[in-house]
Amino acid sequence: MTAVADSISMERAAQDEQQYLTFIMAGEEYGVDILAVQEIRGWEQSTVIPNAPDYIKGVINLRGTIVPIMDLRARFGLDRVEYSPVTVVIILKVDGQHGERVMGIVVDAVSDVYTIAEGTTRRAPELSEDNNSVFIKGLVNVNDKMVILLDVASLLSIPGRLSDN
Amino acid sequence: MSIDLSQFHQVFFEESFEGLDVMESELLALSPESVDAETVNTIFRAAHSIKGGAGTFGFMQVSEFTHQLETLLDEIRAGQRTLEKSHVDLFLQSVDCLRAMLTSLKDHEAPDMSRAEELKKQFIAILKGEVASSPANEADAPAPETAADAGPEGWVVRFIPSTDLLQTGNEPFRMFRELQSLLEDGSQLQIEVDSSRLPEFENLQPEQCYLSWTLTVTGAINKADIETVFEWVVDECDITYRRLGEAASADNASTDNAGANNASDSSSESESSSDAANIATDTNNVTVASVAEAPAPVQAQITSIPVADATQAPAPKPAKSADQSSIRVSIDKVDSLINMVGELVITQSMLGQLGQDFDMSRLARLQEGLSQLEQNTRELQESVMKIRMMPISFAFSRFPRLVRDLGAQLGKKVNLVMQGENTELDKTVMEKIGDPLVHLVRNSLDHGLETTEKRIASGKNETGTITLNAFHQGGNIVIEVRDDGAGLNEEKILQKARDRGLVAQHQELSSEEIHQLIFLPGFSTADVVSDISGRGVGMDVVRRNISELNGTIEVKSNRGTGSTFVIRLPLTLAILDGQLVRVRDQTYIFPLVSIVESIQLQKQTLNNITGSQPVMKLREEYIPIVRLDQIFHLRHRNESVDDAMLVVVEGDNEKIGIVVDDLLGQQQVVIKSLEANYQKVSGVSGATILGDGTVALIIDISGIGKKIEHRGAQPGKEQAA
């Protein structure tokens, strides 16, 4: 973790450190705030929600709670892949306006947990044609690899109904 | 004294509202002809606790107002005054007024005092009638109930020094001056001397003290402060403290400061008063001081008590204690829960032990343990559900009052009979059924029951009867509202419906069909629109509210003998009787209550209107047909509907046929929210978890109905999808 604290005083780094869980999708490594991660599960068949956006795979029963599952590849407009028994669902929770919201995201594989100082993240370059930039909190270099940090709150927000009304 | 009293406000309000309910129901049982001492006592006790609580929490308007009510009650209780009907009416109005005041206070608003002042004047007027005789009486004989009461400010100190007080160097007048110096502006010290112990002049010893004093302190002062004045002489005198009594109140009623002065209390403070009482007293005094004038410095510590004075906005209260609804659960239910959890723990440890060194020889024991676990779980589930259950008397309790008032207003004699008050139902259902029930009862009173003259003319008992009945039937609760009035006037209803174009001129309808007409929006047969009912915004709303609860309402009526409204409701909103259906590879659940019938779909009976909306002729009706797979945009695997089933459902008074692939089974399902983690989905009211652990969606019938209307407006959109 020596590469992390490069341009910033150690003192501040210690204060603003945050742990991120990273996962792999289409060869890239993405990170989400580990405090937002509730659990990691294998993929299971979900119940289709009528007229939902195509990236919402459906809902599953998570110990009695109805939890929607989002295909992150579809959300980011990446190519789809067939789900296999090793396909991973990360269950995320975030405090919303109406209390806690829980949602699962389907990713290719879970990678690692990094401790990242707040100041080391860099803003993602503004790409006007990229609709996904709203989800990106920043970029960070870990062991000479680029990790894309995602903003969980905006990731879990579903824009108004698309195919209905 | 820095206890944050606001944390107890919620409890106070709950208890006060309960107390008001008790007062109301007991008042209704009270009549001038038969004054039951126990009833009066119950009312008195309820009023007394509200007053005490209000005083403790600094809601002075409430405690002052309740005090007047209590004074009159006390006189009735003590037999000094006979109860009149006007008193009961006044008490009932006061209950309403108090309820309104408490509601405002609960919402952190300043209560509207105009009504309270008016009622207070009436109380004082009644009380004045006997004021001349009562003061002495009350001053001498304080009320027997001397519970830790939080009456407002002011003390009466009876100071009887021993005769040798002066010899120990104590000077009563110095003490009185000291007491005077303690008083704030606006407070008063009245001193009365009692010279009855004074001996004949020849026997008088000049060094002895024969006098005794009664000191009346009006205004904000702590008992502890008064005590410090007399601290040095406690051993040499007989001193009693009593809160400012009734007598003082009557005398001071005319002063400008009525707000502060009226709020006095007849009950005496016994020396054994608990710490709690002292806390209460202190709080009161501080609060009252701020009502009377500038806030006392001590108030800074207890800013969370809303001082609901007209000149002072209520203090802001922390948001956390906002409107948390709570339920009272009887200790029996909690005990049985604890027992069951105990059993569950035993089963769990038994299974745990079994699992540590398991071999096949113990299989039978494992199975036994598992079945025990199953039973424990089921029992626990039932008990937990029962916690939410409350007797329907909570919903019924408002009706005696309502019927009494409305009956008086309409000049009808009505007897209300309530049966099955202990029938339990879910709290949420109870809250939502209240308004529809009120509406039905009002309707029965206004339209159902005839006027007294008509009743006599038709040979009926001149007193009409309205019966509220509740009972369990299957998994439902049934509530009946029955009257022995004239019944529904079928000709009149039919005529009205024809006038409004709801029914074709020459269409003949059966009695049941006519009865159903009253549930149509905007339908009223009342000749005159009264302020009770008849505006025509009624039965359709009742019906909608009930169907929102997954319930049904029907009416039975006989000309001349009355009508009965029967409401059927599920016991709880958390569980629904569902019909499982299969559409493509998905399972959906239809609320069983909305299903009219299920039939095999026959293609030749289908017609298309304007090419987009298929309808089917079902007997003499055309009903719109929807295909669930289409409106839900499921992947189409086959287009054929030949072997499909048609489920005819009714929602919002309209029948719809829904095409499904197969009917599966019927079962009770636990309703889970889809919105909690996702969002509202049109056409779906919720989700549930099936026995195999998968999620199935529950169909919202009226939502599907709206979808058709929507689709009718935009044909072509569906094809594109």
UniProtKB/TrEMBL annotation, chain A:
InterPro entries, sorted: CheW, CheW-like_dom_sf, CheW-lke_dom
Compartment annotation: Cytoplasm
Keywords: Chemotaxis, Cytoplasm
Record-linked Gene3D superfamilies: CheA-289, Domain 4, SH3 Domains
GO cellular component, one term: cytosol
Span of domain CheW-like: 17-161
Entry coiled-coil feature ranges: none
GO biological process: chemotaxis; signal transduction
Location (main, coarse): cytoplasm
Keyword ATP-binding assigned: no
One family name in Pfam for this protein: CheW
Domain of life per record: Bacteria
Annotated CDD domains: CheW
PROSITE patterns in alphabetical order: CHEW
Protein name: Chemotaxis protein CheW
Organism whose genome encodes this protein: Parathalassolituus penaei
Highest classification ranks of the organism: Bacteria, Pseudomonadati, Pseudomonadota, Gammaproteobacteria, Oceanospirillales
UniProtKB/TrEMBL annotation, chain B:
Reactions mediated catalytically: ATP + protein L-histidine = ADP + protein N-phospho-L-histidine
EC number: 2.7.13.3
Domain spans labelled Histidine kinase: 359-573
Record-listed Phosphohistidine modification sites: H48
Residue intervals of the HPt domain: 1-105
Pfam family, one: CheW
Function: Involved in the transmission of sensory signals from the chemoreceptors to the flagellar motors. CheA is autophosphorylated; it can transfer its phosphate group to either CheB or CheY.
The name this protein goes by in its record: Chemotaxis protein CheA
